[in-house]
Design a protein that fits this description.
The complex is a heterodimer of chains A (334) and B (616). By secondary structure, chain A is of the alpha/beta class. Chain A contains 11 helices and 14 strands. The chains are: A alpha/beta (334), B alpha/beta (616).
Chain lengths: 334, 616
Amino acid sequence: MWYQRISKAIKKAASPQSFTRFFATEGASPQPQSISPRAFFQLNRLQLNASRFLPGRAAGLRPSLRRKPASEFREHRLYVPGDDIRFVDWKASARQEHIFIKLGEQPKEATVYILIDCSASMGWGTPPKSNTACLVAMALSFLALTHGDRLVIVPLNSDPPAVNLPARQLHPLGPLSGKGQYPHLVTTLNSLVFCGQVDLVSAVRNFRYHQASGGGLTILISDLLGVQDIQPVLEFLPAPTWDVILLHMLHPQELQPNLQGDFEMQDIETQHTINYDINPKNLALYQQQLQSWRANLEMGVVQSNAFYTLIPTNWSLEHEIIPHFRAVNILKPL
Amino acid sequence: MSFANPLGLLGLLSLPVIIALHLLRERQTRYVVSSLSLWSFLEPEVRGSRFRKVSISLLLILDLLAAVLLSLALARPQLNLNLPVRNARHLVILVDVSTSMLARDVLPDRFSQAIIDVAAQLNGLGPRDVATLLTFGNQPHWIADTRQQGVQEMLARLAELQAGETGAALLEALAMGNAALDPALPAEFHVFSDGAFASLSLDELPHPIQWHPYGKQTSNQAIIRLSAETSPNGMSQCFVQLANFGDQPVTRVLSLLADGAPLDSQAIDLPANSVVTYLSPPIQGQPASLGAVLVGGDDLKADDSAELGMRPTSQVKVQLVAEQPNPLQQAFNAIPGVELQVFSPQEFTYAAVMDMTVFRQSWPSPLPNGLVLLVEPPQSAAPLEEIPLQVTGKQDLAPGAQLTQPYPSALLDGVDFSGVRWSSAWKLAAIPPDWNILLQVDETPLLIHGQINGHSVLVLLVDLSQGNFTRHPSFPILLGNIVRNLQYASFPGSIASGESLSLPLSADDLALTVLPPKGNPLEYRTSLPSRWTQTLTPGIYRFEFRNRAGKVTSHLVGVNAGDLFESNLAPQQWMQAQTAQQSSRALDVSQVVELRPWILALLFIILFWEAALAWR
């Protein structure tokens, strides 16, 4: 009967299970997880494809444009007083009227920044988008640590930060070097709390001016919800000092909602509600608008000399994400 | 459709409550999204309204339907079917048989048209219909009923109906029809009449009436009253009332007839819608009947003439048998037309023909002819065993005791006993059960009346020797009434057509011959009728009584059709108003169907459906 149905619906809505389910995505930490052995096997043969123009102070394994007099020839330059005469290319100097010094390549390290959007929307979905984000961050962090790069994990929190955030989430993790840091990194990523509303522009600006020590490879993992124009975000990370990769994490339910009917939709971040009548016509319109939004984002990223790619959160790391990273040259073989 | 309990419709107020509950129920199923910004891309017009739009679901429809049906069931709707119930109805058909229905303003006349219409109604009866046919005029008459006769027999009886009565006993006819109703069938009352009677109060009737009016605007003049007075010198004077019911003044010639012979003729001017009185010059002699005729023609001939039978002025023979004849003798001598003979009980001899014999303080033996009046019967036993009277003594009457008339009688008409000081009365051992007490003081009878072997006997028990009764005017008036009401003296001079005439018979009457104005004389020898009802034809009726002695007494009675209401042929406004309401009232005749059982059945079906949906 109608009143029984209504009372049943009210009881159902007020039941502890539904209460837990309703707030499960708000401020919840992802389940502890790690990269599978198969993914490790794939990653061992890959490396991050970073720009040569990235600044690097210490010597490392990453090729760079920095030259020094060396026996391995890359190019010549004119001799200036004070140069070690051991590196003079006598044969070339004999053919020319000038004295040339042989220059060789000096490998260096790169700083990899992994910026993770810790807003509540990243914790939305079943399983939440944060799971995939953390896995991707682990994989890329493993590659950075493996190849001698300096790694900094930057959680992008709401401003001011939520009271339930752990203390270590308030500050960036790193810089880390060496594979020995990987377990600590995994623990940190698994303890991230996704809650609140993150203003990406202010968060990136805060990162740029207060947390970053210089340029580097910046991997921004976010669902970019609420961001209509990405250029204000990326203008704080100009190329070539900053090589930015934008990983757009979207849940399949966001890409293709399976809804029908009249719904009172509630924003998980702002708790605002709006009534929508979802019908096939509106769903088609939603798809058009979603594609347009993504195209605008991608266009803005390209105009900022950054790189954009979409990662549906239902992709598995070893089967879809790593092959996709190889296909779009985020990763390259050793 | 109407509602027996309109307050039940307040239940419809539950509809918005149900809708609100559905909205509340749907609000519980909110959907949490990662960001409303994704959905804000939708065009504004595809957004839901601020107030949630009610989604039309089967459950909501069933809920609303159940609430509506429950409210309707509480309101008890009744469906008034506009179509008459053709399968089962009881038609009460009342036909006006008054004189006005004989008017020829429509062809052939109003009554013939009504008969045709009634026949059409009877021919249109359904197989389960019931019809009762009644007529009303001076009196209501039950004619036929389909429960007792077939339709063909009813049509035959309908064809035998005759109009000509004066009066409209419609209420009595309606009461008869109402009493004859079949309670299992819806009733329809159909009145076929021209409405030529006074307006009736029909609002309280249990069933509405469908009127079938007849006639149109027409001019009619009538003699509505004819009377005569005879002066002590033997001269008579005729008094005629004429009425003009037309809208135009007319002049009609009035002819007076005496015993059928022309007496006088006078042109009378009759203004429009007026009543004119005409007083004739003195008439010489003593005619047996007087007549008045309006010369010329109009649409109703029956009321253009009137007849009046003159009362007989013959002497009434009275014998007084008493030792002390006074004060009875003085009183009878004061009554005109009384031929009194006084005897002592020893000298009394029975005469062959006598109208009245008075015995004071003596018993008759045997009973004489005519009326017998016993005054102060003696305490001795009656010589005749058939006289069931036994006087036990005197009883004093208290002054101021209440005087009552237990049985109404014409003998006491106009007799005023106020001021009479009753002293005592003779007390009887018992009053025969078939005798009537005409006058009594408290429980003591003073005047009783009964029959002994066919002889009419009056007993006056008042002690005349005491009190002031014999010196009071009521004493000769009472004796005068007794004389005037003797035997044939109660014949009226005229009656209205259709009115029955009471025939005062006595044991001496052996034969009666009635001569109507038209047709052959009717003679009765074995069983004489006590009432004469065949008075439809206006004119002078002659009643001839022949007694055992061969004496023939003739009485003339005029039967007149003219009447103040009956002769007014103009369509009556009250009847037009009733006819105008006929269409709306006809709806009331229709069958009322109670819809609540059907609604409740539908409600239970919907509730079961909802239960199946809820627990599926």
